[in-house]
Amino acid sequence: MLELKPMIHKFRMKDNYYCLDVNSGIIHVIDELIDKVLDIYDGTNRDAVHVALDSSQDPVELNEIMDELDELIAAEQLFAPMSTEFKLVVGEKPIVKALCLNIAHDCNLACKYCFASQGDYGGVKRELMSFDVAKRAVDFLIQMSGSRQHCEIDFFGGEPLLNWEVVKQTVEYIEQEAPKYNKIFKLTLTTNGMLLNQEKIDYVNEHKMSLVLSLDGREDVHNAMRPVAGSGANSYEYIAKNLVNAVKQRHGLEYYVRGTYTHKNLDFTKDVLAMSDLGFEHLSMEPVVGEDGDYVLREEDWPALEKEYEKLAEIYLERQKEGWGEKFNFFHFRMDLYRGPCMAKRLRGCGAGHEYMAVVPNGDIYPCHQFVGKDGYILGNVYEGLQNTEIPKDFRNTHVFTKPTCAECWAKFFCSGGCHANNITLGGDLETPYEFGCRLQKKRIECAIMIQAELEQAGIDGSRFRLIINYSPSIVGVHMKENSNQTIERWGIRYTGIVQGVGFRPLVSMCAHSLGLTGIVYNDSRGVYVEIQGPLGALQLFLDAIQEEQPRLCRITSQTVQPLTIKDEETTFSVEPSPLGEDVSTFISADTAPCKDCLKELQHDKRRQEYSFINCTNCGPRYTIIKSLPYDRERTTMNEFPMCEACLAEYEDIEGRRYRAEPNACSHCGPRYTLYKPNRTAVDTVNVWNTTRELINEGSIIAIKGVGGYHLVCDAGNDAVVQRLRKRKNRPHKPLAIMVGSLDTAIELVQISDVELDVLTGMERPIVLLERNHNSSVRLSSHVAPDNHMLGVMLPYTPMHEVLLPSDAAWVMTSGNRSGDPVLYNDDQAFNELGEVADYFLVHNREIYAPLDDSVVMVINNKPRFIRRSRGYVPEPIHCESIEATPILAMGSDLKNAFALNKGTEILIGPHIGDLENASTHETLEWTINRYENLFSIKPNRIIVDSHPQFFSSHLGEHIGESSQIPVVTIQHHHAHIASVMAEHNLTGPVLGIAMDGTGYSPDGTIWGGEFLLCKGNQYQRLAHIHEAPLPGGEKAVSEPWRQALWYIRNYYGNDIPSAYQTWMENLPKGWKILDKALQSTMPMIQATSCGRLFDAVGSLLGLGMIHTYDAQITIALEALCGEEKGSLLDYNYDGKVLDFTPTVQAIMDGVVQGESRAHLAASFHKTIAIAVCETTADLMERYKISDAAISGGVFQNRKLVELIYRTWHVGNLYMNEAVPANDGGLALGQLWLGSQIR
After folding, report:
1. What is the separation of C-alpha 891 from the centre of its chain, rounded to a whole number of angstroms?
2. Closest by CA position to 1161, among listed 1125, 1132, 1133
3. Is residue 856 helix, strand or coil?
4. 3-state SS assignment for residue 299
5. Cα dihedral sign, 264-270-276-277
6. Sign of the CA dihedral 664, 668, 670, 674?
7. How far is the C-alpha of 792 from the C-alpha of 784, rounded, in Å?
8. Which whole number is the average pLDDT over 153-182?
9. DSSP tag of 427
């Protein structure tokens, strides 16, 4: 990374001398003598100044000048060092903030200089964007913008008004979707105005769209460059009339009129004035640069251009002195001369390819509109997402610190390295700025400095931004802050969300200090409170900077501002202590993986090399160590570890990344690991990490205490030890998760898409289910994930993992408990219960206050979907606009239990508890509910439970309701599944819900599991369902799919059973003949419309197993069996109410009898289910006039099925769970949402 050295820039304009201190942004208005001194003086060389100037100047005066310059240097207002704050933003993860939608690759003008070549972008197909592409582009931006609230879309072309209907559809779709994701969109329409009639003007005004209007100044200049396409006719008169009409009706809405200047109109001041004379107040003139054309600017034009900018600047200055104000606003003279946008933006400048992208009509994504049609610059498409990840990385990593020319340039923080497209096209490569463009930019900056300085001297506020100017001859003069014309205000700002323990107060303090503001900031029970005082422009910059520079773990859910009384005596900004004794209404962040800075220290820092508890405000433990709020060290389990002097100094350093980092520690003062035998005898070892690695390599099973509990760890390539672990843990077949030592090892083991890569390497670090790489060179035991086409893979997510695992390691990392029990986190319990499972224990001495299991994620249809939502995500809230503020406790299900509580419109989903099969999980659920209520100060006044009468979760909810004397409401299981999707996507109905899972209690006494429900508010109606089939043996049929499979055989073949299934029956468990007789009798059996049981039965009929040893075992094997097979559509029946897959099952059995490929039959089954569901849905949506559909339930964790459904879908909008699992782990969200709808 290049060093940015102290630097000044001096220039003269209008007989005044100016000096810009580059790194501080401060401007000094100086005199001629000081200008001469600064030609020589750098703060260290007084003698050189005297040698050069004593013969012509008074030496005493020279010393006085240099004394004053030294004061400025000491105050870092002259030759200021580069702020380290800029360097902090270089490595941040990118998010897409804006899209340019090339809504029309066509145009009704034929502008001679247009890079889009009349809309077809130099050979790209001339076409209009479909609404489907535009809609997918909006979805892409919502997904890629992450937690960022503010997004932008520019409707561009060609001429976007040629595709007006799609523009309107897209605007309305954005307005529909934005509230669901807590987004605020700024929409801009860039148009040449030919089609800008009254109807369109009314629409853009109604929807508060910004306008960028193209007009090339004087009539003759415009007509020469912008003829009508085809005819070549003049366009000025028609366009000017339309633009004048549009601008008159803006009434404060944002617009500007953009012209151009070329070699043909070097006197462009006349064009600016001509546009001003038409009544246009907001103007810009852009240079036309390039390589071809007689209109392109060239080197010989430079003297004329330099003078023209100075001429325009003088006119602009005079008009401002005359009081024109905003009525004459020239874009390039209104630049921010005090650092301007956020630090990241100042550093990186052009956001093309990583913050800003362009989408063309066929859905392809480019870095920006200027790259469209250029070979090698397609980044992906809106259907499959980003596929070329190298260009975004290259563009993002190209900034002031990487460009030698820019690093040495005084204007670097104004242009920030220039335009990537111009650099590549005209400069030759990404890191070489276009020199002619640089000169133009520098001239505009000098003009802006002159204008604002002169206005300041005249007592006129010429800038919307804060500007610090020192005046000569005394140099140390008046700052703009002290100018009587500056409005000084004091604001009280309340921030809520995840704003404690994430470096938010240091950010506030840093921004306040950098802007010269005074005030206070502190944590309290509601979040973070700020009082801030200073010039109005600086206060507005402060708000923008906080939103733009949010720390890694921060998530602001609301920002409210109220005016306060000014405190005249206040001179500083300070961080105050947290008040105590208040009810809590703030949130806390999840536990996250080490940040890049901590990882570097882990390798090289003297105090923290290989220190397994390294952390800072950007990473580390939170939820698992916090006992109560506000979040301060004494209320965490780190309270037992007083900080050493060095750590305390970091903790109190406002500019450091460990400022108020509550878990801060080092090897001298913090927690540490010890290796034990099962009898709790410490193992004598020189290096605990080397010894542990050796033991794992030799075949030992180690119980390792991590951030949220214990893991059982062994070598995943050792068959014997993996089998031994399974036997000891009583887990015969369920897949075991793998932790790998590096991304390279993961790439060897599994196939990883871009979206999967983002999830795998994200700070949450869940287990990610990934397709196996069958040609892997990494040795992996077949017992890790038997009969499964996927592996659960995770990367190291604590410093301990980073230190312990070799880069080529592939270790089993499974939860430290016996099958069916919750994860162990108490040391005594761990030694007692795992003493016969683990050979050794690697234990740290910091208490885990709250247990937390690993999260599990799978990417389906190019989006991450939760299988289990826990570590890395809990307890971050899910925002839901459509719920009432009434606090509610939703109990969830007995399978994959996770409860939910709400605090206003923020829903807190509990951690994964597991299946409520025994007392230990019951106790964990009760303890965790109590913890949430106490931690977040929530007192529910309503309890929501599942309608199943035997669920422990329902009984516990009823007990809580009875003891607290609050009402308990029962909710039907599948209705809650659909409501979870409605809650996520802010759908109030009507919605067609397709709920498919194993079994759910129904109001008619049967078992549901394949339902089509019409849902609106808290009401539902069952419109259709899949066919009923018995569950022979009741509950036993859930874990023994052979029972229903046998029914299908008898139901189809009767007594004439083919030999293939006679052989199948011979392998049934003992006692099957008794059940077989019952199937052939009239004995009543429980009927079920369960899609999950249907998948199990088909898997069993295809020979994939008779009995489950873990949930969905045979269904997973069925999906894996499909492989690359496409399958064929099999028979099914649908009569408007019942979707009958009995013919499908019979076709599969016939295929088995006839010796067809089992893989083909499995794929055919998936394909038939997907098509049948889509066709049934289409019929119901048309009949009941429904436009939105939602799918939920455990069946929709089958990736092949869901992706087939998405490909087949053709009516209305389809929604699916994204924030919570589609299985019962997301049920509580739907329960809570339905409970809030009850009036």
Report:
1. 29
2. 1125
3. strand
4. helix
5. negative
6. positive
7. 10
8. 92
9. I
Which among 960, 1002, 958, 949 has a CA at the least distance from the CA of 977?
Answer: 1002
Which of the four pLDDT bands, split at 50, 70 and 90, describes residue 670? Answer: very high
Strand partners for 283: 257, 330
Task: Tell me the residue type at 906.
Answer: E
Place of tokens 């949430």: 932
Distance between CA 17 and CA 104 in Å, rounded? 49
Tell me the C-alpha to C-alpha distance, in Å, between residue 60 and each of 54, 65, 494, 534: 9, 9, 54, 38
pTM: 0.72
Q: Give the whole-number percent of the chain exceeding pLDDT 90.
A: 67
**Strands 329-330 vs 282-287: parallel, antiparallel or unpaired:** parallel
Closest to 382 in 3D by CA, of 92, 130, 19, 10: 130
The torsion angle over the Cα atoms of residues 1199, 1201, 1202 and 1208, rounded to 10 degrees, is 140
pLDDT band at 1028 (very low <50, low <70, confident <90, very high): very high
* C-alpha distances in Å from residue 63, one per residue of 50, 152, 969: 9, 54, 84
**pLDDT per residue as tens digits for the range 322-349:** 989 888 988 888 765 443 444 444 455 6
- Enter the DSSP assignment of 88: T
How many angstroms separate the CA atoms of 1080 and 408, rounded?
Answer: 89
Q: What is the pLDDT of residues 369-398, one digit of tens each?
A: 888 888 888 999 998 888 887 888 788 777
Q: Is 79 exposed, middle or buried (0-12, 13-18, 19+ CB in 10 A)?
A: buried
Q: What is the spatial distance between Cα 126 and Cα 360, in angstroms, rounded to a whole number?
A: 10
The three-state (H, E, C) secondary structure of 124-146, written as one string: CCCCECCHHHHHHHHHHHHHHCC
The residues with which 190 forms a beta bridge, in sequence order, are: 212
Q: 350-364, 544-558, 875-889: which has the minimum mean pLDDT?
A: 544-558
**Distance (Å, whole) CA 161 – CA 155:** 9
Cβ-based neighbours of 820, under 8 Å, separated by 6 or more: 914, 915, 917, 918, 921
**Nearest CA among 528, 496, 501 for reference residue 631:** 501
CA distance 1069 to 279: 89
CA dihedral 1021, 1024, 1030, 1035 (to 10 degrees): -40
Tokens at 899, concatenated: 């409860």
Which of 725, 922, 892 is CA-nearest to residue 820? 922
Tokens of residue 243, six digits = 């633009």
Q: Is 513 exposed, middle or buried (0-12, 13-18, 19+ CB in 10 A)?
A: middle
The predicted model gives 284-292 an average pLDDT of: 81
Give Cα 1072 to chain centroid, integer Å: 53
User: Taking the mean position of all CA atoms in its chain, how far away is CA 1229?
Assistant: 21
Three-class secondary structure of residue 503 per DSSP? coil
Which 8-state DSSP code applies to residue 874? T
Strand ranges (E), 62-162: 98-102, 150-156
* Higher local confidence (pLDDT), 90 or 878: 878
DSSP H or E segment with residue 308:
helix 302-321
| Element containing residue 812 per DSSP (H, E) | strand 810-815
Q: Which helix (H) or strand (E) holds 366?
A: strand 364-366
- Residue 192's Cβ-count burial label (10 Å; 0-12, 13-18, 19+) is buried
Dihedral over Cα of 749, 750, 756, 757: its sign: positive
Q: Beta strand pairing status for 1019-1026 and 1007-1016?
A: antiparallel
> Are 576 and 521 within 8 A, CB to CB?
yes
Q: Rounded to whole angstroms, how far apart are CA atoms 725 and 850? A: 26
- CA atoms of 1031 and 1052, how far apart (whole Å): 16
Residue count of the chain: 1239
